[in-house]
Backbone:
């Protein structure tokens, strides 16, 4: 097991254009999450799981992938889709669950997916995506493709049976998969030290026969460097890696959660001071790549962009009722066709209000 | 008597039994310090400590497997599965182990534990915070399956379940977790497992429902008094109170079953089979199932998915007009 962190004061090892792109995307994600949490409180969005405090882990890890690589995400990686070119309006339509959503308003918010950016659909069932990611990577190798698969999870997910199954398969078959664990210190109310007795998440890889790296997950450059090295190795046929990004969930688990019931606010304060965006900006300014004036301008621009997209996305109607019966099978069998007629004979129900 | 909701009633039942019986332990995700994501175990960690209210790692197979071992060794575990949608990582432990333990050991071992889990839709939870998997567990065998619709029943049934000899799957309808209120008697009382309750008498037709949909069926019956419906809250799904059901259908000659789980192979299918076997010559119309559609549970369109009162009312109206 290795640990990785960018060295204080050392010049950046990542190309300046890429650094600035990471910074812009992280800031966009922060802006978006803040707006969405507000909209959720206003009852305009049903649920939301923010990435606040974890932007470096999400964005910089995904940036280490090629466009053709696949992502099997968990709750906090929606933003990777935006980084990889998915447009903002349909992204927001998933959150509104309306007709502009490619996934037809079927899943809760923060469960976005799009084939156009190779980000697969994930269920809320923690850990279930991990063996699937290993399988996709095995398939890529069988087919002779150069695709790498990124398998994301939280710290809580490392307790799931599927995590251990996936790690073992990865160790045995050595497919081009990179596991990225966002250790944000909490799984709802359970702190990581009650989740596992291992000294780290990364060390678990050792027992499964491959390398684990622990990286400062609030350091975008370090995350990028560690994940990029793992992706390169996977692509070169050198097998899997587990990258643990140590970060922190600054906000609530989701809009349904109240962390004051189980978490000491002083701990949150410590991590607020290690905000990945703040730290990144300071570093960029110090390196002469960025200025406070440019920052001000960018923030304004992003807020405008996000607000415009929200206005456009929110206008869209609900998905048509008939769509309820699509995609269960490739075409609806008799019973679904009958049920569709039965449903259409009853007036459309009111859309549920904000979550209780 | 206090006006309580289902969460408060469940909490009270757990507290009563933990005080009465030191063998009772709780385990699950976020049930300790946090008191559960729905707050059903609030205050119990403070009162009984971390050896009896155990926050576990995130692994449902671990929760149920460990609970089985605890029960075999003489404890009375009451594990919580945070949402019934997440019971499936524990499906093997429940179906292959828990439900068959007594049988496969020739009656030497048993694991009388009570799995509590919130069930059903109506909280905008999408596919994975909304499902109703009762039929799978009834079919599996060896398990009692309970689903109260109100706080009074929830408390009395949970106390019976914990004191029972057999494993129980205790399904808590989260759509009405807070909305269904009632005057819950203080202190200790039980409601027997296996007894349905006639909540509205009538001669026109029998309507069978449970959990959150009981309230929708009740509204539909109340809005159409001319149907003269007899509404039965099943309360215990398995073993079904067949006597109460057949007595009613033999009187009314018509039967509708309401549940939010998908229709195909849902619990309604088994009830319909039982009713036609025992009431065939009394039936004046085909038995009607009003259920969730055979699709995954949707997010935005959840109210079009659920068999809410308007759909139930329409179905019952048609049932009245039907001839064999
Ligand atoms: C199989 C399963 N069990 C329980 C849950 C409920 N649940 C949702 S998120 C969560 C905690 C996840 O923690 P972690 O993996 O650390 O991810 P984080 O939310 O911190 O990003 C739990 C217990 C679930 N979604 N799936
Ligand atoms: Mg976590």
Residues:
């Amino acid at each position: 097991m290795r640990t990785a962190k960018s060295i204080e004061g050392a010049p950046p090892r990542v190309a300046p254009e890429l650094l600035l792109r990471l910074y812009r995307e992280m800031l966009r994600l922060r802006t978006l999450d803040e707006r969405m949490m507000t909209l959720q409180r206003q009852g305009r969005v049903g649920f939301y799981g923010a990435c606040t405090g974890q932007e470096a882990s999400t964005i910089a890890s995904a940036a280490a992938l090629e466009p053709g690589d696949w992502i099997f995400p968990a709750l906090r990686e929606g933003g990777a889709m935006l980084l990889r070119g998915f447009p903002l309006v349909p992204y927001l339509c998933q959150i509104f669950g309306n007709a502009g959503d490619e996934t037809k308003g079927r899943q809760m918010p923060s469960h976005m997916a799009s084939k156009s950016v190779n980000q697969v659909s994930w269920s809320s069932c923690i850990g279930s995506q991990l063996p699937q990611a290993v399988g996709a990577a095995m398939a890529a190798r069988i087919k002779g493709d150069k695709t790498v698969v990124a398998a994301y999870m939280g710290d809580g997910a490392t307790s799931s049976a599927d995590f251990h199954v996936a790690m073992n398969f990865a160790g045995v078959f050595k497919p081009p998969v990179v596991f990225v664990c966002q250790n944000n210190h909490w799984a709802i109310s359970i702190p990581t030290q009650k989740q596992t007795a291992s000294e780290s998440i990364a060390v678990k890889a050792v027992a499964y026969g491959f390398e684990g790296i622990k990286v400062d997950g609030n350091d975008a450059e370090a995350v990028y460097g560690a994940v990029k090295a793992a992706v390169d190795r996977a692509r070169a046929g050198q097998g899997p890696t587990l990258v643990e990004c140590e970060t922190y969930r600054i906000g609530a688990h989701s809009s349904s959660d109240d962390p004051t019931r189980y978490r000491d606010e002083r701990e949150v304060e410590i991590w607020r001071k290690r905000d990945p965006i703040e730290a990144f900006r300071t570093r960029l300014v110090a390196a002469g790549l960025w200025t406070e004036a440019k920052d001000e301008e960018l923030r304004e621009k992003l807020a405008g962009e996000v607000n415009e997209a929200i206005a456009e996305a929110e206008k869209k109607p609900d998905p048509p009722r008939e769509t309820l019966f699509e995609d269960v099978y490739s075409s609806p069998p008799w019973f679904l066709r009958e049920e569709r007629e039965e449903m259409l004979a009853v007036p459309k129900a009111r859309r549920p209000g904000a979550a209780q | 008597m206090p006006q309580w909701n289902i969460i408060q009633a469940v909490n009270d039942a757990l507290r009563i039994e933990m005080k009465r019986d030191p063998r009772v332990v709780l385990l699950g995700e976020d049930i300790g310090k946090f008191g559960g994501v729905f707050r059903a175990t609030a205050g119990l960690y403070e009162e009984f400590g971390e050896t009896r209210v155990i926050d576990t790692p995130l692994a449902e197979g671990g929760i149920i497997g460990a609970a089985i071992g605890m029960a075999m060794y003489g404890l009375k575990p009451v594990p919580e599965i945070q949402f019934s949608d997440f019971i499936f990582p524990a499906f093997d432990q429940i179906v292959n182990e828990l439900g068959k333990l007594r049988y496969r050991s020739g009656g030497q071992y048993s694991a009388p534990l009570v799995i509590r889990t919130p069930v059903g839709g109506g909280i905008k939870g999408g596919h994975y915070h909304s499902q109703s998997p009762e039929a799978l567990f009834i079919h599996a065998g060896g398990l009692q399956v309970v689903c109260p619709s109100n706080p009074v029943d929830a408390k009395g049934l949970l106390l019976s379940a914990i004191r029972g000899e057999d494993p129980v799957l205790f399904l808590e309808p989260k759509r009405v977790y807070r909305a269904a209120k009632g005057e819950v008697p203080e202190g200790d009382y039980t409601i027997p497992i296996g007894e349905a309750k006639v909540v509205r008498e009538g001669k026109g037709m029998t309507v069978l429902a449970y959990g959150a949909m009981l309230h929708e069926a009740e509204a539909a019956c109340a809005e159409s008094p001319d149907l003269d419906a007899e509404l039965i809250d099943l309360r215990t799904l398995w073993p079904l109170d067949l006597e109460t059901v057949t007595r009613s259908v033999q009187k009314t000659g018509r039967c509708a079953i309401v549940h939010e789980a998908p229709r195909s192979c849902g619990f309604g299918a088994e009830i319909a089979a039982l009713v036609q076997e025992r009431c065939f010559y009394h039936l004046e119309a085909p038995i009607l199932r009003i259920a969730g559609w055979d699709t995954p549970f949707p997010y935005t369109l959840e109210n079009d998915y659920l068999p809410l009162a308007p759909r139930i009312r329409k179905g019952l109206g048609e049932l009245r007009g039907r001839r064999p």
Remarks:
- Residues A 154-156, 184, 186-187 surround magnesium ion (ligand 2) (CB under 6 Å).
- The two ends of chain B are 48 Å apart (CA to CA).
- Chain B has two domains: 3-183, 197-321.
- The interface with chain A takes residues 29-30, 32-35, 37, 55, 57-59, 61-62, 85-86, 88-89, 122-129, 178, 263-264, 293-296, 298-306, 308, 310-311, 314 of chain B (CB under 8 Å).
